[in-house]
Specification:
Elements: E1 8-12, H1 35-47, E2 52-55, H2 67-70, H3 75-83, E3 90-96, H4 102-115, E4 120-125, H5 130-134, H6 144-162, E5 170-173, E6 178-180, E7 190-191, E8 196-197, E9 212-215, H7 220-229, E10 232-235, H8 240-256, E11 265-274, H9 278-290, H10 294-305, H11 328-338, H12 345-355, E12 359-363, H13 365-377, E13 383-386, H14 393-408, H15 421-425
Parallel strand pairs: 1-2, 1-13, 2-3, 3-4, 4-9, 9-10, 10-11, 11-12, 11-13
Antiparallel strand pairs: 5-6, 7-8
Helix pairs in contact: 3-4, 4-6, 6-7, 7-8, 10-12, 13-14
Bound molecules: flavin mononucleotide.
Keywords: Flavoprotein, FMN, Monooxygenase, Oxidoreductase
Organism: Ancylobacter vacuolatus
Family: Belongs to the NtaA/SnaA/DszA monooxygenase family.
């Protein structure tokens, strides 16, 4: 199987489990700061030939939050440790373009790319919460679309810094005593609306050219940003027809930016609930719903929607919310769910609390593989971000049961073909803006 024909799989690595109460099940990991647990997850993902593990991040903590987010390791610090304990798995961490400087970020992610021999990716987030703003001297974050304008310039600077060393700039020629070729190291001299950055970076170009850029926004501004920069997009989708429409539209938008559509992979979150039989899986799903406690469920829903959801009648239909309160991608999911006949606020909060709004795939490994096959082969996605309820339980079961079923159907690789995250995702090595174009090189921006 070539990399191009394999679906792509990542895992949402949250040691306490993505289910809000996953950590309470006997045998589950209980801390998102436990390096042994996090190493186990990375190694299981690698044994399953996953493209990458993904670590989310936020810049605040409050005691009512999801347990995996109250205390967690800074993603690139964690990924650096994991890069020493794994060999092939891609390592995608989250960092905020609103509360970091581009030079720091470019260096941080480039360092991981060197440590891991080209396995690093950066999930660009703009950080919407008031709590995070409070940790950076502000009462509120910059306005939504302004954050994306800042993010666009931020990414331009970061990519410029990653290009500031051409391949072959380090000579280390003992004979002549020349360590570098100054003609291959470039200042950026960026003076923009938000950032002034001279460059060059004090980190050379890595073996995959540049770390992979990932993005997960679904608003108009988020999608415009993604079509320009994202090489992978994480989505929250429940409905296959909506997912197909999103896929088609996004690939067109990517092409309109002068990029090859296959250079941007679309990966919806998939929440697997696995049993030996469909019936056993349904019983497990019911137990996941029973484990939801009302207060934390409402907290998750409020945080997802950017609106305090306590005080509404849980057994009534979903109320209309003020549009300005919506965090767009989740609001779209709620809109889809709310249209289902008889759907109440309680149904919606259960879905948010159990699966964090990701698509639930409940059944035997074959049933789950059927759903994944349908989405993948009908043009709804390029693969999935697997969002396990518990670790190690659900994820180990996925790798032991569902992955072989996907491999048997020739939908997923049985062995790694390449070594870098770009190789796994089928992404081309990016051209360096400072280097003379190689003969016959693609003019695609992302190539
Ligand atoms: C799979 C996935 C992972 C995400 N990870 C993070 C994260 O680690 N940190 C964060 O602040 N936001 C994260 N988000 C939220 C998005 O970056 C984005 O803020 C949200 O989808 C709203 O975007 P929009 O305003 O463009 O609709 C994630 C979203 C998804 C779907």
């Amino acid at each position: 199987m070539t990399e191009g024909s394999s679906m792509h799989l990542g895992v949402f690595c949250m040691a306490t489990g993505n289910h809000v109460a996953g950590w309470r099940l006997p045998g589950s990991f209980t801390s998102n700061e436990d390096i042994a647990a996090l190493t186990h997850i990375a190694r299981v993902a690698e044994a399953g030939k996953f493209d990458f593990i993904f670590v989310a991040d936020g810049l605040s903590a409050s005691v009512g939050d999801h347990p995996g987010t109250i205390a967690r390791l800074e993603p690139f610090t964690l990924m650096s440790a994991l890069s020493m304990r794994t060999h092939r798995i891609g390592l995608i961490g989250t960092a905020s373009s609103t509360y970091t400087e581009p030079y720091n970020l470019a260096r941080l992610v480039s360092s991981l790319d060197h440590l891991s021999s080209g396995r690093a990716g950066w999930n660009v987030v703009t950080t919407s919460t008031v709590q995070a703003a409070g940790n950076f001297g502000a009462e509120a974050p910059p306005e939504h679309d302004l954050r994306y304008e800042m993010a666009a310039e931020f990414v331009e600077v970061v990519q410029g810094l990653w290009d500031s060393w051409e391949d072959g700039a380090r000579l280390a020629d003992r004979e002549s005593g020349r360590y570098v070729d100054p003609a291959k190291i470039h200042a950026l001299d960026h003076k923009g609306r938000f950032f002034v950055v001279k460059g060059p970076l004090n980190s050379s170009r890595s073996c995959q050219g540049r770390p992979v850029i990932v993005q997960a926004g679904a608003s108009a501004a988020g999608r415009a940003f993604a079509s320009r920069y994202a090489e992978a997009i994480f989505t929250v989708q429940q409905d296959i027809e909506e997912a197909k429409a999103f896929y088609r539209r996004t690939k067109q938008d990517v092409a309109a930016q002068g990029r090859a559509p296959d250079q941007c992979k679309i990966l919806p979150g998939l929440f697997p609930v696995i049993g030996r039989t469909d019936e056993e899986a349904r019983a497990t799903l019911a137990s996941f719903v029973d484990m939801v406690d009302e207060r934390s469920a409402l907290n998750t829903l409020s945080e997802r929607l950017g609106h305090d959801m306590s005080g509404y009648d849980l057994d009534a239909p979903m109320p209309e919310l003020p549009p300005s309160a919506h965090i767009h991608s989740y609001a779209a999911v709620v809109r889809t769910l709310a249209q289902r006949p008889g759907c109440t606020l309680r149904d919606i909060y259960n879905i948010f609390a159990v699966s964090r709004a990701y698509l639930v795939a409940c059944g035997s490994p074959a049933t789950i593989a059927d759903l994944m096959e349908e989405w993948f082969t009908s043009g709804a996605c390029d693969g999935f971000m697997v969002v396990p309820a518990t670790f190690p339980g659900t994820f180990d079961r996925f790798v032991e049961g569902v992955v072989p079923e996907l491999q048997r159907r020739r939908l997923f690789r049985s062995a790694y073909v390449g070594r870098t995250l770009r190789d796994h995702l089928g992404l081309k090595m990016p051209a360096n803006r400072f280097a003379p174009p190689a003969a016959g090189a693609s003019r695609d921006r992302s190539a």
